[in-house]
Amino acid sequence: MAITAERTAQARPTTSRKWVYLFEEGNKDMRDLLGGKGAGVSEMTRAGLPVPPGFTITTEACNAYYAAGKRFPDGMWEQATDALKKVEEKAGKRLGDARNPLLVSVRSGAKFSMPGMMDTVLNLGLNPQTLEGLSKLTGDRRFALDAYRRFIQMFGKIVLGIDAQKFEKRLEHAKDKARVKTDPELKPAQLEKLVEEFKAIVLKESGKPFPDDPMEQLRAAIEAVFSSWNNKRATDYRNFNKIPHDLGTAVNVQTMVFGNMGNDSGTGVAFTRDPNTGEKVLYGEYLLNAQGEDVVAGIRTPNPISSLKKQLPEVYQQFERTANQLEKHYRDVQDLEFTIEKRKLWMLQTRSAKRTAQAAVKIAVDMVGENLVSNDEAIQRVEPSQVDQLLHPRIDPKAKPKVIARGLDASPGAASGKAVFDADRAEERAKKGEAVILVRIETNPDDVHGMIAAKGVLTARGGKTSHAAVVARGMGKPCVAGAESLKVDLDKRLFTVDGVKVKEGDLITINGSTGEVILGSVPMIEPAINKDLNQLLTWADGRRRLGVWANADYPRDAKVARGYGAQGIGLCRTEHMFMEQERLPIVQKMILAEDEKERRKWLQKLLPFQRSDFNGILKEMHGLPVIIRLIDPPLHEFLPNYEEQLVKVTTMRLKKASKKKLEPEEALLRAIAGMREQNPMLGLRGIRLGLLFPEIIEMQVRAILEAASSLTKKGVDVRPEIMIPLVGHVNELQRTREKLEAVAKQVVTEQKADIPYKFGTMIEIPRAALTAGEIAKHAEFFSFGTNDLTQTTFGFSRDDAEGKFLLKYVEEKILPANPFETLDLTGVGRLMRMAVEEGRKARPDLEIGICGEHGGDPASIHFCHGLGLNYVSCSPYRVPVARLAAAQAAMAQAERDR
User: For residue 509, is pLDDT > 60?
Assistant: First the structure.
């Protein structure tokens, strides 16, 4: 009667807003409203698959809950109780009925998959009366008690906020006392006692007895799931994956089916293809006589899904058919959760599967071959960040690592770092720039911030569908799970294995592709583009408008860039060449020269070196443009550090060094002191240096064109473009170009060769962008140097800002993103737009590109496409990323234009 009173007492007129949907009322297109899980179970219900009945409370209700100060929105609870009555009718059971009790699960489910980040409560509806009813109905008191102790444990942790370890310790103590290793071995009497001990923990920690009213339990569980949307691990996960914080989570209330009713029952998680490799094979794990959380929590090491074929063949065949049906229906790889109750298969979830970069590419290409998706869909199925992950280093097969343990190859790739045994310390150390490997007995959702910070994850327990594995795969980080030979001591911060002790701070390497745990660090190699990625990028090349060039200072970099599909070099920095060991002394003598005549003497010695440098890179990029930037940094950067030189001179004076040795060092110190600047970034550098010391850049232009002439005579198609940096006023460029054009014409006359060349400038300070129309009259191309343009627009020194306050700005949402990683569209982007419009108005055929680090950032590439740039230029290793991002930008534009 109490239950009925609770339901009717709460009744009041409902609003017209629909907050609750029965599973049969939803479909796969309602992800925004029902979340991924709710839309998935609705679609499976509509398809006639075996889905336990239930209902979904919408994401809008979650947002309304927060907007109302953590109160249910008007009408939501009444709609939920109405939906519950319909579920009871379908199930033929009633929540709280002592003779025929309905038990439900309460699960989260956001629009985007966030595995393990929010909360779930199973077996809700149990109390002393329904426990007896369940025991009599099933004829299995052990099963009923096991379900009850699990419910108290989950409800206590998730709804009441009690430390999970308090329950775990009592459970471990009960198993030790009974001399058993696993939960299913505990006898009814032992479970009976454990239930009472769990209730005592709840009373002590919460100050209240465990609630027996099923409706009170339900209401509290729904609130807990809503609240879990903003817990730390969920917030950290959304930040890492760039998921908006205002989407909210849905709540799914579903009839319980039980996998812990004996060895003809079980629970599992499976994927319709291998999420690590993309291979078309059913992949997953299950446990007999267990509930769903046992598999993902890593409490027991599960069996591979292929073993189910032997243990329960009829169930396996049905599951295989269902998996194929769902993949074809969704035309994507599915992540499935299922329960087997007394040989009957029940489907609990289907959602688009998280997958590694390697798998994402292979699956996209394979599905085109299987006529499941089009080329365009395949291009859009792969994230540019996944291509980046695919090109991360792996262990050199020639290496002879010291393998100390083996676990499961849970997420591919390799990483080295210091072993750290706690998520908070992993985060702290990573913020200091240390590479860390997070080592845990098993991870749980509260470890996610440490996983984000770590280079990789190692666990002693758990399988390929454990929390550690699923989250690491989604992040593109390597993971070795279930390395059971490791004896992990979290209190002492160490693990031992076969006599080897690894303490916190010791270097280890994990190979997520093989499951190996290695002592120390090992050599890594850069991966090559495989045939699947090559095919995907070929399709992408056919859809993009933007050219993709690369930043490369040496022929070896250019070779890598060209191998990755670069169509030119957008930035070749000449100052790096000056730092080479054999020429640095000549550079320093040139800088210290007392007059132009002496300076030209040393520049004449540098000329062959520079000519050789340019010969190599122009030859490597035959048939493609190469933009060479003239010297940019201030000259003092090529001299010793002032403080170090001062210490050296002072020491020599104290030691009474000979006059012959001391005088040159003192002269060098005076020269360095004379060149010191308060703000070198805004001082004598770039075009300003060229105007004061034109002989330096004249030598560089001669070297470029002499190298080009030599190659042209050998039949090599060279296309040099000479970039003058740091222009702020048109007169700077006009005068500089006049001098350099004279040198260029002189070289052409001397060499008797027809050399195609261009002069252009880098747009990297705001005034250049604002006066682009004037500047374009004297420049044949623009290249946006967005690193400096961002610094000068914001008034930031990048090194100081990132070290002191910029990351805090991003964390506290003062800035939406780090502007040195993703273009600031409203400030820097506006300047770029003005420069493009004004520049092309003055010179319609003006070639415009970008060569800052933003050239490899997918979001910035989308903006550059919209601006109408000719190309983006990025690191050689990000060229494949840019090729895919440029294609996706073009496709997005075409979609908007429809």
Answer: yes
Q: Comparing 274-288, 304-318, 666-680, which segment has the lowest mean pLDDT?
A: 666-680
Angle between helices 828-842 and 786-794 (to 10 degrees): 120
In order, the DSSP letters of 797-854 are -HHHHHHHTHHHHHHTTSSSS-TTTS--TTTHHHHHHHHHHHHHHH-TT-EEEE-SGG
Taking Cα atoms as reference points, which of 510, 353, 357, 393 lies closest to residue 440? Answer: 510
Query: What is the Cα–Cα distance from 396 to 407, expressed in whole angstroms?
Result: 20
Q: Which residues contact 203 (CB under 8 A, 6 or more apart)?
A: 209, 210
Tell me the sheet residues that pair with 284.
270
What is the distance, to the nearest Å, from the Cα of residue 440 to the centroid of all Cα atoms in its chain? 21
What's the CA gap between 865 and 386, in Å, rounded?
A: 21
What span, in angstroms and rounded, lies between the C-alpha atoms of 460 and 393?
25
Provide CB contacts within 8 A for 515, sequence distance 6+.
Answer: 406, 407, 408, 409, 410, 480, 483
Query: Which band of pLDDT confidence, cut at 50, 70 and 90, is reported for residue 474?
Result: low
Residue pair 20/83 in contact by the 8 Å Cβ criterion: yes
The per-residue pLDDT for range 741-787, each reduced to its tens digit, is 999 999 999 999 888 999 999 999 999 999 999 999 999 999 999 98
Whose CA is closest to 183, among 220, 143, 212, 155? Answer: 143
What distance in Å separates the CA atoms of residue 594 and residue 626, rounded to the nearest whole number?
34
- Mean pLDDT over 842-869 rounds to 95
Give the CA distances from residue 822 to residues 794, 798, 854, in Å, rounded to whole numbers and listed in that order. 14, 14, 6
Pairing of strands 54-57, 20-22: antiparallel
- Looking at the chain, the whole-number percentage of residues with pLDDT higher than 90 is 68
Beta bridge partners, 509, equal 416, 518
Q: What is the DSSP letter of 638?
A: G
- Is residue 7 predicted with pLDDT exceeding 60? no
Amino acid 295: pLDDT: 66
Q: Which band of pLDDT confidence, cut at 50, 70 and 90, is reported for residue 8?
A: very low
Two structure tokens written together for 540: 């992408």
* pLDDT-wise least confident of 11-15, 268-272, 786-790: 11-15
Show contacts of 749-756: CB within 8 Å, 24+ apart: 751/705, 751/706, 751/709, 753/709, 753/712, 753/713, 754/712, 755/705, 755/708, 755/709, 755/712, 755/718, 755/720, 756/718, 756/719, 756/720
325-334, 440-449, 469-478, 651-660: segment of lowest average pLDDT:
469-478
Q: What is the predicted pLDDT for the residue at 115?
A: 67
DSSP 132-191: HHHHHHHT-HHHHHHHHHHHHHHHHHHTS---HHHHHHHHHHHHHHHT-SSGGG--HHHH
**Angle between helical axes of 128-138 and 141-158 (0-180°, round to 10):** 140
pLDDT on residue 61: 96
The CA R_g of the chain, rounded to the nearest whole Å, is 33
Q: How far apart are CA 775 and CA 833, in angstroms?
A: 15
Give the integer Cα–Cα distance in Å for 490 and 422.
Answer: 8
d(CA 778, CA 543): 33
Mean pLDDT of the chain: 90
What percentage of residues in the chain have a pLDDT greater than 70? Answer: 96
Contact criterion met (CB below 8 Å) for 718 and 712: yes
Give CA–CA dist 591/695, Å, rounded.
12
What's the pLDDT at 379? 97
Q: Give catalytic residues, as residue numbers.
A: 467, 851
Contact 508, 518 (CB under 8 A): yes
Local structure of 895: helix, strand or coil: helix
Distances from the Cα of 319 to the Cα of 215, 325, 333, 465, 844, angstroms: 34, 10, 15, 17, 62
Q: Are 342 and 257 in contact (CB under 8 A)?
A: no
Q: Which residue has the tokens 């506290």?
A: 812
Q: Helices 596-620 and 694-713: crossing angle, nearest 10°?
A: 40
Tell me if residue 231 falls in helix, strand or coil. Answer: coil
